[in-house]
Amino acid sequence: MEQSLSIERILKELYHISGFRICIYDTNFHEIAAYPHELGCFCGLIQKHPEGMRLCVEHDTMAFGRVREQEKLHIYKCHFGLYEAVAPLYSFGALTGYLMMGQTLEAGPDAGRMPYEKALPLVSDPAALEEAISRIPVRGQSTIDSLVTIMEVCAQYITLSNRMNLSKNELVSEVHRYIEKHYDQKLTIDDLCRQFFCSRASLTRKFRETYHISIHDHICKVRLENGCRLLRTTTLSIGEIAFSCGYGDQNYFTRAFCRTYGMTPMQYRKKETLSPI
Question: Which tens digits make up the pLDDT trace of 239-257?
Answer without folding.
Answer: 999 999 999 999 999 999 9
